[in-house]
Amino acid sequence: MFSYAQEMLDYELYVVFMDETLLSTGLSVLAVFFVVLFVTGSLPVTFLVVLAVLLVDLFLVALIHYWDLTFNTVVVVNIVVAIGLAVDYSAHIAHTYLIVIPPKGLTNAEKRQYKARKALSS
User: What are phi and psi for residue 71, nearest 5 degrees?
Assistant: First the structure.
């Protein structure tokens, strides 16, 4: 026989809350790394995309503090969903940067600027 109460479930949630959040976020970032590496085929670009995703989540965690939000399930779900949204945007820009063919006769710096402009505009 065991006792059951909603308060016990709530307490158990907050006991494992931080560990589960870190595990979900870490596994999501690891999956992002491998998927973006597979799609782009470029290790430097993959690291930049993963860095962008990590910075988006870092800023969201900072906003939790500044907006005086409590760390609850809704906030955790939004943090994990933000990884997907940040990856979608960053990976498309990175992939477009890699496939844009710059016109001939440009210097390396001009080629990079041209590719960056095209990637951001399309």
Answer: -80, 95
Cα 81 to its chain centre, rounded Å, is: 8
Q: Which helix (H) or strand (E) holds 94?
A: helix 73-99
Mean pLDDT of the chain: 88
Tokens of 25: 């976020």
Average pLDDT over residues 18-34: 90
d(CA 35, CA 43): 12
- Residues 9 and 13: their CA atoms lie apart, in Å, by 6
Q: How far is CA 74 from CA 49, 50, 69, in A?
A: 25, 24, 10
Amino acid at 90: S
For residues 9-34, give the mean pLDDT. Answer: 85
Give CA–CA dist 81/38, Å, rounded: 21
CA-based nearest residue to 80, from 21, 11, 1, 37: 21
